[in-house]
Amino acid sequence: MSHQLSPEEISPAGVDFLPGLALDFVIFGFHQNQLKILLLEYRNTGLFALPGGFIRQNENLNDAARRVLAERTSLTDIFLEQFYTFGDLARYDVAPMRAIMEAKGITPTDNHWLLRRFVSVGYYALIDFTKAVPIPDSLSDTCTWYELTALPTLIQDHRLIVQKALETLRADLDRNLTGFNQWAAPLLSDIFTMADLQRLYETILGQPLHRSSFQRKMLSLGILERLDKKYSGGAHKAPYLYRFRTNSPVPIK
Amino acid sequence: MSHQLSPEEISPAGVDFLPGLALDFVIFGFHQNQLKILLLEYRNTGLFALPGGFIRQNENLNDAARRVLAERTSLTDIFLEQFYTFGDLARYDVAPMRAIMEAKGITPTDNHWLLRRFVSVGYYALIDFTKAVPIPDSLSDTCTWYELTALPTLIQDHRLIVQKALETLRADLDRNLTGFNQWAAPLLSDIFTMADLQRLYETILGQPLHRSSFQRKMLSLGILERLDKKYSGGAHKAPYLYRFRTNSPVPIK
DNA sequence: GGCTATTGTCTCATTCTGCGACAATAATAA
DNA sequence: TTATTATTGTCGCAGAATGAGACAATAGCC
User: Fold this and answer.
1) Which positions in chain A touch B253 (Cβ < 8 Å)?
2) Are residues B168 and B207 in the same domain?
């Protein structure tokens, strides 16, 4: 986990937060055949971590997740999915966290609350990375998109968390596709072509898909609405445009 | 959540446990076309709850789950699956918990740690209910199997937790089938017929399945080993016996 | 030795999926 | 205006997967 604290909040006991419980985020960013995730970097330490946060005493768990995500991406009303809760003792190595704090000029006592054990609830999101304005938290220096295929070494068990998030994203893509698009900053533009959608799928699944089978499957999901308009782009046949149905039927498994 | 504490542990601050974090269990029990779950009852209160527990300071989350489950069922080495973490504020209504403690002769202070907010990690298991010896925890009076189709009213959000566990159990049944059987107290007896397996599926999924299609599908999963022996049961053709392969291949989705 | 309920397997129709074919077409170039 | 070209929508086919019934084999019972 990591931290959306203001500097004043670091030294006190973090008393406004639920103790020992954190949130970790795997924020997938898609745009034009690229899949990235958002990472924090701690200068002078060479350490990278997933964005994270804590839960306020009077805040729902899922609301806390939405709040922290908004703080990191400046995007509100994001579609978030909880995917696993990580609670191994081994996952929390105090050395990196101590290095991060000392690089910030803080010398924590041995039982500083940030150096204790945390259980962390993992969430993932999928957004258009051109629409986010990444903002580092108070302990980190940069908050940047990294290609999923070229991630730096991450602290703690964050590599495992990314892996599990990716598996869940892939497995539930059909089911969550509408969700990713019905919020403030949709993943695809409001209207899009079948080719746009296919590029999204291919990038996330990491494999090419056959065009006609893909079209057939997408239409059979019943979540798309075909618009009668056409495109004005390249020197070739104009594709139909689509948008996601509101109140789309939930696909039956 | 609920509690595996000894009476002495109730009044102190539960200092050995991670604060604010609990475990809730949906322990499915199967036997001969019956699907039940394990519930605790608190006498003199009419309240029913899922078994639950807490995590020790120096204990892995999943190990804590295994420990508590062993305490409730006397079964060690159980196959457990984490399925969701529940963190709404509304889920923790203090009134039932206070009633439970007062029925036990304890008068908790307003900020007693058991009356504070808990975030709870949900786990489910699936065992043969004839092999468990249910043991109530220190706050409850009985620990009993209840038919899933006739559950009493549960405290807090426990009905929702059961619902979500059942959905996950059904969705992941193929994938976890070997898991449920390769531990100390297997779900099915060591060797079993295809009809036994079909009854298990029909009971869990809550719908009848076609015999020949079911057989074809089960064999195609590649997790069964057919034994050349035969049965000696009724006045009819003897079925083959099966057992689960060790090192069965993971079914590809 | 016949009877009967259950089992293993086969077959057939239907649906789903992978994959290529082909005509339609929209902008550009000639 | 016409030819060119890349891309698109759809169709068709082969193979796989699935639903559903048919039928012979058989193990114990009377």
Assistant:
1) 171
2) no
